[in-house]
Amino acid sequence: MTPKNPPPLNTIFRFTVIGLVVAILATAFAYVGGWLDPGRLTPDRMINTLEDNAGVHEGYRRNHAKGYCVVGSFESNGNAESLSRATVFATGQVSPLIGRLAIPGGNPHADDGMPPIRSFALQFELPNGEQWRTAMNAMPVFPVSTPQAFWELLQASQPDPRSGKPDPAKMGAFFAGHPETKPFLAWVKTARHSSSFVNVEYNSLDAFRFIDAGGTTHFVRWGLVPEAPFTPMTDAQKQDPDFLSHDLRERLDKGPQRWHLIVTVANPGDPTNDATLAWPADRRQIDAGIVTIDRAQDQADGPCRDINYDPLVLPDGIAGSDDPLLSARSAAYSESYNRRTREEAESATSSTQEPRS
Amino acid sequence: MNPRTAVTFSLPARLLHWLMAIMILTMLFVGVGMVATVSERHVWLVQLHKPLGIAILALVIVRLLVRWRYGTPALPADLPPWQRHSAHLSHWMLYALMLAMPLIGWTMLSAGGYPVTLFAGVTLPDLVSPSPTLYSALRFAHTWLALSLFALILLHLAAALYHGLIRRDGVLASMTKGRRKP
């Protein structure tokens, strides 16, 4: 067929239509991608703020940078089977574990005696390629309930270049403007530094959903309760910036370390979207089985190094809740993982001699 | 009939084209959106991204078979050679990216040690063993090829409208309408 030759004005109009269609689509794409929305809290901006606070330590996690890989297993006793159809809870099921014990903060060379908080991340391997990943903290509640507030907390706690410490005035202003931090602050006042990674209780903090065989949903939080009794950090330990890893190796040389996986079930009406609020102490608790850690390995070459402990990598039978921190953790951990694997890849190609972090 | 003399694309080709156009545009918006927010949208967009990607992978294979079976209508004889070459090149690039993007995404997640969960309880097998170096390279490729695919789609759309509005040579109609009566 022969193309017609429309009049010039008409042609200009038609070209304009084409240009507009393309421009509208491109603009919508740019908006969704965050390029036209500088105020949006993106995973990128969250991780940038962590880097502003602690510096860039290539190859390391952007938060909880200092840690150790541990290996062991979880043996289910079947008690949680009625709450969740996840195979990890089947009676007698033994799931291999790759874990990571760490302290908070973005500095991989931090002094173990500084923060009173320790963290425990676990990856349970299930049959059929499923996994359950969880990243728990040794504290009863989270300081804030939203990603935005967490970002503001990070900004407020940025170290002052002169003192190297957060500006107390900024911190004070943040806490004054965020009354939801009160339960956390009350705990910090009484918190004692433990002598070990293995004698503290770790909590999921965020709520999750367990889905049972009948499809019914149960809101839960979980935690690890240690068999080793709590003892506080000693004066000798205060002199050793790596006392937690030294203690861990000493204890594992003597034998495996154990925790009970305790599942707490919410009552109707308990807050599931607010990690700053603990549930009342009388809630039903189920001892689901034993987490055993047999050995530890340096994170530079240990099996936990390349695992992103994204709390939303969950098997069938466990799902996220309406807690807004969960999606933010998932998104931000992923960005941290992307950055550190890129750095690992770069260091692997630039030098095969130097040990990677 | 000889596929080369067909005036329009076959019905299966047209259905696949428009279905996949919606799916791929959705996929690209989901992709850039999910990595640009820490809100709850992140979670459900990621959950949508994986099964949608696998569906696109399955459909593009069907589509290549349909193309092979039914052929494509010839371009207008008076189309300038550079436009003819651009048309062929861009179409094969579109097919290559439609095929590559889901495969890269799947391999990338395997290399990162992530289970590729499509729906609760449905986890795809790992294509490779975990490797941070491979993960990092594929993660980079996934982003930049996605942006290239989007740019190519804009070009494709502009060219289709150019055929439909400026040249009015039946090329756009070959994908929008059924075969015309002679």
TrEMBL record, chain A:
Pfam families: Catalase. Gene3D superfamilies: 1.20.1280.120, Catalase core domain. PROSITE patterns: CATALASE_3 (PS51402). The chain crosses the membrane at residues 12-36. Keywords: Heme, Iron, Membrane, Metal-binding, Oxidoreductase, Peroxidase, Transmembrane, Transmembrane helix. Its cofactor is heme. Residues 347-357 have a biased composition (Low complexity). Residues 26-356 form the Catalase core domain. InterPro entries: Catalase (IPR018028), Catalase_core (IPR011614), Catalase_sf (IPR020835), Catalase_SrpA-type_pred (IPR024168). SMART domains: Catalase. Residues 330-357 are annotated as: Disordered. Its EC number is 1.11.1.-. Belongs to the catalase family. Has an organic peroxide-dependent peroxidase activity. This is Catalase-related peroxidase. It comes from Salinicola acroporae.
TrEMBL record, chain B:
It is found in: Cell membrane. It holds the Pfam family Ni_hydr_CYTB. Its main location: membrane. The chain crosses the membrane at residues 15-39, 51-70, 144-165. InterPro entries: Cyt_b561_bac/Ni-Hgenase, Cytochrome_b561_oxidase, Di-haem_cyt_TM. Keywords: Cell membrane, Electron transport, Heme, Iron, Membrane, Metal-binding, Transmembrane, Transmembrane helix, Transport. It is a multi-pass membrane protein. The keyword Nucleotide-binding does not apply. Its cofactor is heme b. Residues 9-178 form the Cytochrome b561 bacterial/Ni-hydrogenase domain. It comes from the Bacteria. Belongs to the cytochrome b561 family. This is Cytochrome B. It comes from Salinicola acroporae.
